[in-house]
Write a structure and sequence with these properties.
The protein is of the alpha/beta class. The chain folds into 3 domains: 7-104, Probable tRNA modification gtpase trme, domain 1 (Gyrase A, domain 2, 2-Layer Sandwich), CATH 3.30.1360; 127-204 and 366-424, Four Helix Bundle (Hemerythrin (Met), subunit A), CATH 1.20.120; 219-341, Rossmann fold (3-Layer(aba) Sandwich). Helix content is 45%, strand content 17%. It is built from 14 helices and 12 strands. The chain has helices at residues 29-37, 86-98, 108-115, 121-132, 136-146, 149-173, 180-202, 207-213, 227-235, 278-293, 344-359, 371-389, 393-411, 417-424, and strands at residues 7-10, 19-25, 47-53, 56-66, 77-83, 102-103, 215-220, 253-259, 262-268, 296-302, 317-321, 334-335. The strands form 2 sheets. A 6-stranded mixed sheet has the order 3-4-5-2-1-6, with helices on one face. Strand 3 (47-53) and strand 4 form a beta hairpin.
């Protein structure tokens, strides 16, 4: 959709609510506001007005007017804070359509903000992350990115590369004046330092991406150890079927939890044992695959039975269940009774410590938060390492250009059009 159109969308959550916020952006925003409210309110001052269209009253609403370019999108923007009933929304939307406004596509407000220089791409992505944040840790990361932490870091590297490129170009252009060696030495030193900084940033075990998407925890163990009971206890509701019959769980069952301010995707898996039953054997295979692909693995064992530790499992935490039984024998790890709840608090504390160890860092720099950032930085690193080996100044300079372009694609400083669609396609309507 072109920027010449005027778009509208519900910017608050749908469904039944006391209030709803409708956002309008584009060259026709002011005319739409005046047509419905009689005239435009003072810029950036809330004003209560009666909305009417074709002689019919639509609602009494609070209105805000943001003339461009000093608005979120860089265009003229109007906000209608209306009552949240469906009839009110639909009446307002019908009036917009008759006025020639068009419904916004997902992420179109943020996309216009990027195209008009109001946001860089990393801050635009943070808008989506703020809307999706479910835990305090996700909120902290999104806010830091929205405030420009990542953009400042990446643009700092790009600026450094542009400076090194200028030195390389000077070495090429003024080689007859004796400046070639001095300029190239300085440029290579700057490149070496940037390589080290990017390496430290990318060698983070995917911390920022995991924090944003959620950490995966697999619960594994032999049949009847209490895995399904454990996931029900963690979720505080019945997620998995609990039965004394071995092999009840035959597939991976997942639940989303918040633990210590972090998002976890916890998986209950089939009991690990040899089986001639084709369906159960497939469940065991999936359980092992889930453990191998998860960030953390919890091994749950029956402490009232002889130790039955499955082969090939390297747990991050071992828990011995059924401590309430007389035959219980504690092994290395945490003792627990899922029947009485004894030991559950200790287990939660241990899990929280594991998650914090996996996701927290003493490094104050912002975390890399999306796969496209990592891909672009890896491209930049490849070019910079190639530049280090380049013997000719011309080849050295070309590698620096490639690296700076790769980093520029993260913030949208270069080649922005080719990546806008992929960045904004997953945004919600109204953002």
């Amino acid at each position: 959709m072109t920027q010449g159109s005027t778009i509208f969308a519900l910017a608050s959550a749908g469904g039944r609510a006391g209030l709803a916020v409708v956002r309008v952006s584009g060259p026709g925003a002011g005319a739409a506001l005046a047509a419905l409210a009689g005239n435009k309110p003072q810029p950036r001052r809330a004003s209560v007005r009666r909305l009417s269209w074709q002689g019919a009253t639509l609602d009494k609403a609070l209105l805000l007017w943001f003339p461009g370019p000093d608005s979120f999108t860089g265009q003229d923007v109007a906000e209608f804070h209306i009552h949240g009933g469906r009839a009110v929304r639909e009446a307002l939307f019908a009036a917009f359509l008759e006025l020639g406004l068009v419904p916004a596509e997902p992420g179109e407000f943020s996309r216009r903000a990027v195209e008009n220089g109001r946001l860089d791409l990393t801050r635009a992505e943070a808008v989506a992350d703020l809307a999706e944040a479910q835990t305090p840790a996700q909120l902290r990361q999104a806010l830091r990115q929205y405030e420009g932490g990542l953009a400042d870091l990446y643009e700092g590297w790009r600026s450094g590369l542009i400076g090194a490129l200028a030195s390389a170009e000077a070495a090429i252009d003024f080689s007859d004046d004796g400046v070639e060696e001095t300029e190239l030495i300085a440029a290579r030193a700057a490149v070496s330092e940037i390589i080290q900084e990017i390496q430290r940033h990318t060698e983070d075990f995917g911390r920022g991406e995991v924090l944003r998407e959620g950490l995966r925890l697999a619960i594994v163990g032999p049949p009847n150890a209490g895995k399904s009971s454990l996931i029900n206890a963690l979720a505080r509701r019945d997620i998995a079927i609990v039965s004394e019959t071995p092999g009840t769980t035959r597939d991976v069952i997942g639940v989303r939890l918040e633990l210590g301010g972090y998002l976890l995707h916890v998986s209950d898996t089939a009991g690990l044992r040899d089986s001639n039953d084709a369906i159960e054997a497939e469940g065991v295979r999936r359980a092992r695959a889930e453990a191998a692909s998860s960030h953390l693995t919890l091994l749950l064992l029956d402490g009232s039975e002889p130790a039955n530790i499955p082969d090939g499992i390297e747990p991050d935490l071992t828990v011995w269940n059924k401590s309430d039984l007389p035959a219980f024998k504690k092994g290395d790890g945490i003792s627990l009774s899922l029947k009485s709840g004894e030991g559950l608090a200790q287990l939660l504390a241990a899990l929280t410590a594991l998650v914090e160890k996996r996701l927290e860092t003493k490094d104050e720099s912002p975390a890399l938060s999306r796969p496209r950032h990592r891909h672009a930085l890896n491209e930049a690193l490849a070019s910079l390492r190639h530049a280090q080996d380049a013997k000719e100044p011309e080849l050295f300079a070309e590698d620096l250009r490639l690296a700076s372009r790769a980093i520029g694609r993260i913030t949208g400083s270069m080649d922005v059009e080719e990546i806008l669609d992929s960045v904004f396609r997953d945004f919600c309507i109204g953002k």
